[in-house]
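Subject: complex prediction, re-run

Hi both,

The earlier run crashed halfway through, so I resubmitted it with identical inputs.
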Amino acid sequence: MKFEVTVEISRREGILDPEGTEIERVVPALGYTNVTGVRMGRTMRLVVDAADEAAANDQVDEMCRRLLANPVIEDYRISLSALETA
Amino acid sequence: MKFEVTVEISRREGILDPEGTEIERVVPALGYTNVTGVRMGRTMRLVVDAADEAAANDQVDEMCRRLLANPVIEDYRISLSALETA
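This time it finished cleanly. Structure:
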């Protein structure tokens, strides 16, 4: 069964986010004076063929820990849904 | 009123995604032979202080078009929710 998986990878609380900080520093000059708390992250979408949702989730979690996220500085959140197959 | 905004920026359909392609190429060697359709994107989270949800959405849409996304190669999706203030 195929599952569409979205992994949102973000920096852990307390880890500096230079890109977000820079955007926040610059936007007031462009007229947006009401923007705060800018944080940038990465998203990965993929399709996993697994027996069930738990198996798909476990595999993606393992992939994230092994190679996709840096657990020292990043958190990740996995969400998945069954993919309709024609 | 403050709104927590998430912008998910992804490559348009048909635009090459070298990072996603490379991850998909490499994962079978690590034992994951059931992964397809890997696409990488960016996420931006920010807080906007606006009169209402429509105003917040319009402003973020304008910011995306002006400076955050590249409309030639990227799509973006805005989702927002009112932020509880203590």
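The mean pLDDT of chain A is 92.

- K.
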